[in-house]
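Rotation project, supervised by the postdoc (A.L.). Task for the rotation student: set up a whole-complex structure prediction and record inputs and outputs verbatim in this book. Inputs entered:
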Amino acid sequence: MSNQAVLFDVPGPKAKRRILVFNVLGGLFVLGILAVAVNGLAEKDQFEAAKWTPFLEWSTWQFTLLPGLLATLQAAGVAVLTSIAFGLLFGFGRLSGVAPLRWVCDVVVEFFRAVPVLLMMIFLYQFFAKSTPMEASNAPFAAVVVALTLYNGSVIAELVRSGVFGLPKGQREAGLAIGLTPAQSLRSIEIPQALVAMLPALLGQFVVILKDSALGYIIGYTDLLANAQRFGAGAGNMLPSLLVAAAIFILINMLLTFTAQRLSRLLGARAGKLLQREDAIDPEGVEAPVK
Amino acid sequence: MGGFFALFEGYDVVAAFWMNIQLAFWAAIGSLVLGTVLAVMRISPIASLRWFGTAYVNIFRNTPLTIIMVFSVLGLWGQLQVNFVNDFDLNFFMLAILSLSLYHAAFVCEAIRSGVNTVPLGQAEAARSIGLSFLPAAWLIILPQAFRGAIAPLGNVLIALVKNTTVAAAASVAEASGLMKTMIEFRPDVMTQIFLTFAIGFVVIVIPIGLLTTWASKKLAVAR
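Outputs recorded:
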């Protein structure tokens, strides 16, 4: 059911009036929610100019928000690269013709997809700080990156595998028919197509990586959230600070989502199918652009 | 290693996991209700509600859950003095459920919408032809089929929800990841065993949910 307009008839003059009435009522309902929120905030003096003006000053951005954003982007950026490496390695491992290798990769991927990222982060932080010669000040960054890599790398490995399985059977058969071995057909025919098909879903996974990097706040990584929280505590404007931090995250993620959806349209049906799989591989990733 | 098992006498691991399950249970109900309402808004003929549903999904889907959780605790409770109950711990528990519900409702909404997409055109046309208007058609014809088509994606959201209950640590709820941290700090020498215990605990919860929803999605699929 691609066209949602079938749920209701093309409205006649009477229905148009009724829709208009409900539209106004719906608009009032939305405005009402906003009004209650705004009123509640105003009662607690959250709209005082002094609470918001710090965000118009360059020094706030220079010393607090931008360094925080930089730390967030660093952790997320490094995690993106390592996740891709991890994902390709284990994705290919899961497609391997050597059964024991396939099983090991299967177990690793399924395990890390089932364990909460925060649990890994807390453990790795303690592990890096106490059991390795790593300097304690670097432990939060390393824990964030490694935890994000283990989870998102596993998701990407699953993407690689389902990208190959999602190809039409004829691709493999054609490869075998011209005399390639199964491994050669996988390498030179199936995987290249699967990698292109998974690009939009991969981009969607970056959104998850960026969002989950905020978990670093809990183990003491001084990311955007941590800096915003500290600034809010110091300047007495906790609510505005957290809202500004959230807005920055939303903005970057919407940009990524938008690019992923454009890319999937550009790449055509096969890529869209991977993004639109009913049982999305990572439910928190970018959902299909439902028509 | 002998001391490792003695550790479980001092710390109630089962109670911590029970807290995660409770968080997941209430947040699942909350996000299912809110997500369904949002999904109906997004397929309705009323433009203002469609706009609201879309805006909600885009905002909450793109915000880190950690920020929502911190916002609930430091913002709603700390700044705005939102108190659901007077009991301190219970109040934080409820704030955590609120945050989890708000966040996952966006994903539930998208899962149901993908379920709506599995319902054939003829169903909606038939509903219209027997004179049902939008709400009865959605409630009686489309949504029951959409839910059955959305079991697999909803199951995935539920799995994500169970794992995300650990983020309630940011709201100082006494759940598994917080307990693991305390235990590791107390006994760093057996930290790997402690981590594996908790990790396997989550695997044991998550994998049956996956198997169950996969089975249910096949069993309950609308035969077409």
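Student's summary: DSSP finds eleven helices and no strands in chain A.
Supervisor addendum: Chain A touches chain B through 70 residues (CB under 8 Å).
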